[in-house]
């Protein structure tokens, strides 16, 4: 009985050893797959890097500011729209903003600006433009030179068509790879993300409900993300934009551009 138990124990040990070896092989395979997928993310000179290897960096200020919101006791909110311009929705947004005398910041895609220059030419007075890349690629997956070239190309297109050179950048998807930070510093941009955004998926076919949700969520210093291009569900937010504006004004909020918000005489928000 003792020998049998010993033999089974030995078999069990061998079986477990085989399983462990198999697991190690699988683990090595997963590790190799990860390395293959992420080999464009080296620590020097590639997308994960915020510096160039053995080169002068060419950074204007040598620093970049990243902003999600602005701490302030004033009831200020910055309305922002990404991914445009496009003829389907951008005019609707501009018409609503003009009707309600609301300034906004448009983070424009350079290729869209070239393609649909007529949509925004002469219509952005009182608004602000920012850079949202040339073709909405994920800049965090590019190396430092490619990210800079992309944003520079978009910068020139936006300045040429709108007459205003962007001083703000918002990377597609909000992805902050090292190359994005490096390019933003080279272009002397402020990097602007957001602290609240439209939640269209939660309110299908209910613009009024969506507007109430956004009005309730906004806080002093909020940078609010919207889109003037995209899938049809986003129209819920755009159709509810007048109610959103009225609701926020009823709460005492003033609409400003992002740069105006950043330049506001901010004071600590009261506590308690």
UniProtKB/TrEMBL annotation:
InterPro entries reported for this sequence: Glyco_hydro/deAcase_b/a-brl, NODB_dom, Polysacc_deacetylase_ArnD, TAT_signal, TAT_signal_bac_arc
Alphabetized GO MF terms: hydrolase activity, acting on carbon-nitrogen (but not peptide) bonds
Matches recorded under Gene3D superfamilies: Glycoside hydrolase/deacetylase (3.20.20.370)
GO term, biological process aspect, one: carbohydrate metabolic process
Matching CDD domains: CE4_NodB_like_6s_7s
Residue ranges of domain NodB homology in the record: 75-256
Top-level taxon: Bacteria
Protein name as annotated: Polysaccharide deacetylase family protein
